[in-house]
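JOB MANIFEST
job_type = single_chain_structure
chain_count = 1
residues = 85
[input]
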Amino acid sequence: MEDNLFYVKILSLSGEIFSGEVYSLSAKNSMGNFDILKYHTNFITLLEPGQIKFRIKNFKTYSKEDIKNGFLIFEDNKAEVFINF
């Protein structure tokens, strides 16, 4: 199971909200809801208001963060998320 993890860092103007390894990350852009798993295609997207959700440690632990706006960069199994700027 540990092979399915990828690194995520979520930042806001007030500082780091989360950094660590996750199994999945879900958010919303102008096309709708999307999910990221390890080995997802590299991309950059603007985020729409809503929630960022991510699964950590085991598939049952779900964390979420409300956002007004932001953007996400996913490259080489690492996601950087900048929110509420």
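[summary]
The chain has no helices and nine strands.
The longest strand covers residues 15-22.
exit_status = 0
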